[in-house]
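Handout, page 2. Input:
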Amino acid sequence: MPFNTHSPLLKKLPEPAPSHRTKKRFTLRLSIIAIISAVIGFSWFVIYYRALPEKGAGFPFYWIHDHIFLPLKGYTYSLFYPYSISWWGMITTLIILWIIGFLAFVSFFKEPHIFILRKMVRRINKHSILLNSCKLLNKWKFHPVLVKEITSLERKRTSNSLLDTAISKNDYSKDILPLERLTKLTHLQTTLMLLPPYNLHENLEALVTWHQTFLQIGIRLRKKPDSTELNSLTQWMAKDLEEIISPLFPFKNKESADVIQKIQPSFTNDSIMLDLLLLASLNNKPLIGLLMDFPEEPNIPFPKVKHIITSHLVYSTGKRLEILDKLRHYLEINENIESFLPSENDDKQVIAFLHSLALSIAVDTAALAEQPSLGRAYIEMIETLDFLINNNMNIDKETVENLKPLIQFPTPLLYSIINQLSSEEISAYRSSWKQNEWGEDSIVLAHDFDLAKMIK
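Output:
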């Protein structure tokens, strides 16, 4: 019976390695240990019994013994005897434990390794040491996979601790330290993701990670724009974005200005990257100069710039909603669905990342424009498409699999932001109803009625 069942809690769990695969690995590892032991044993036999002539085949054995083994033994064991027994005993014990773990598929060093790395990751002032060490090891082909996983876990924990914080409150003093910690962890994680060799998937995942943190900070800054700490964090995040996005979208080139003007809102790489840069530019004036050209008004006031950027983002989100709505229509009538299918050369994982970024941009734009309905509409469209794709009996399984990258559900953070924005909007309407001479009767307006239905 297979390990995975129809349970939604178990279906994503990996199946354990089959017994025959485990036996093969054990045989391979045992063979490696046996070969190493045979080489060491043969070398000892040749040197101890002088089994080979010194100037013939035995020369390498005697040379290694005289020029490497004896100096090493003399300076680390004989010179400090009997005290050297302590560290040589410890080294021998560790080697034996490693051999046992290697053959038994267990690790006696992983838990201490994780403990030390977790302590390093949690100490923000140690990140520079950790990064430099990872870069050095990465040059020797030791990729910091475990450090990335631990950093990702710590970042998610810090982010989740901020989910329940009301974005409508006026005092964010208690949030500053967690937000600063979240920013530093995000910087560490994205930098590790961009280490050589370059990987497109890692680069896009770094963008998703960056925007989740940027949302947490930016949404609070919009409620308290005079906060020095929040402004400092968003400027730092904007600089990080420039580093992350450069391999994907060379916006600093001289030719980029003409390219930017021609970009149309869609789910393409250039369109998504431009929207992320525009969001970051709201707190980074030099970035605005690179992205937008105002020849007629060089000293254009920032409120007007913000209005232009917000209008562009709302338009982009509306256009993407229009594309998704067209797919919904085609799914309902079961026509022209193939026009939305990726080609053979398209990377489905890249498509999934771009659609995930488009969703988070929609939520960020809804917060920026103070229109929660825009974010709700986008999320509802995703849920509708998911239902139509998975419950349409006229679509074959291959088509369903090809359409799935287009459906990226919101993270708890995005749901939390939309819910908090909606609650704030409801509170504002409720306040206006109480001040109205008609009182609660004014909810007969369609928009007010829709909001009233959301009040618990």
